[in-house]
Specification:
Number of helices: 12
Number of domains: 1
Oligomer: single chain
Order of helices and strands: EHEHHEHEHHEEEHEEHEEHEEHEHH
Distance between the termini: 42 Å
CATH architecture: 3-Layer(aba) Sandwich
Strand content: 15-25%
Number of strands: 14
Bound molecules: nicotinamide-adenine-dinucleotide
Strand order of the largest sheet: 3-2-1-4-5-8-12
Shape: globular
Length: 353
Amino acid sequence: MKYFIITGSAGLIGSECVEFFIKKGFKVIGIDNDSRKKFFGKSGSIFKRRKQLLAYKDYKHFNIDIRDKKKIEEIFKNYRSKIKCIIHCAAQPSHDWAVKDKILDYEINSFATLKLLDLFNKYCPEASFINVSTNKVYGDNPNKLKIVEKSFRFEVERSSKYYKKGIDESLSTDNCVHSFFGASKLSADLYVQEFGKNLDLKTVTFRGGCLTGENHSGVELHGFLSYLVKSIIHKRKYKIFGYKGKQVRDNIHSSDLINCFWHYFQNPKIGRVYNIGGGRENSCSILEVINFFKKNYNIHLETEYFEKNRVGDHIWWITDYTKFQRDYPKWKIKFNIEKILQSIASYEVKLIQ
Ligand SMILES: NC(=O)c1ccc[n+]([C@@H]2O[C@H](COP(=O)([O-])OP(=O)(O)OC[C@H]3O[C@@H](n4cnc5c(N)ncnc54)[C@H](O)[C@@H]3O)[C@@H](O)[C@H]2O)c1
């Protein structure tokens, strides 16, 4: 039998990976201790999602902390070469939270990743290791691009090499403010590359922009689009932090991201790094999302504006995913931005009916 280990298995990306790979005929070992509840409170808990996953007979859940090397090693020892892939999705995912407990943020995001890589190398080096990283590894370097202000969004200048397709992997990760979250994720990202390039292992790190979908337990501190749409549907006041609400993000639906993992798994390469996101077509600003719901559904959102932006927050980020597409030309994005917004909204509407 072939096994996948998925960390953060009840979170947004992890839980969809579980369902996807079970449908593909694999058995899945999930590791998630609902740290998300600890980070963000009850509304951030993945409790419900975990319950749904437990219904799959091919799913085995371990309610343990990824920092606990002894317990994690037991799993690797038991399954060894039956493990075909590790998808590492567990993380402390918020930059605002990281500043409150830098050590814990580092231990989860960075040190635990190193421990996992070490176990992967020791027990199942023929497997693939897929790491979910972030565009915050580039810190606030994107904010140094020449940016112009439009009515509802900021935009990079047309003359910029990033205008057409967005930002690729050539952007420097140095000489910038990362946020403590960005720093711990960059450290993990480098270790994943190092285990690939130095030890000739099949590792990949995907630097995600905004990963989203109806299964996201979006909260104020993490899950921008999910939280914004929830606020709109549930008529909750929404706080905008800086940049006049014109900050731009590109969004990728979780199922499109998981499809990247599938393509990589079928044809893994050594020590790869890819920017991944929804690209220019899937980009939006906060104001544009608010306007979308106003125009199409006549729903108004009450907002409160705070002048100070979040530390290291991007003014404009659009992902150039050309490098991944070049290596995996059969991968295509299926969810455009309207479809993403509608899927999150209709899920939330169902919850209140
Ligand atoms: N959602 C986004 O917009 C986004 C953007 C870029 C990168 N990422 C990265 O993608 C990955 C997955 O993100 P997500 O949106 O699914 O996050 P998520 O918070 O929904 O899922 C992460 C899961 O990891 C679990 N977890 C955290 N610490 C743990 C620990 N010490 N032990 C065991 N389990 C633990 C949490 O309980 C949670 O269920 C993360 O690495 C995140 O940094 C996310």
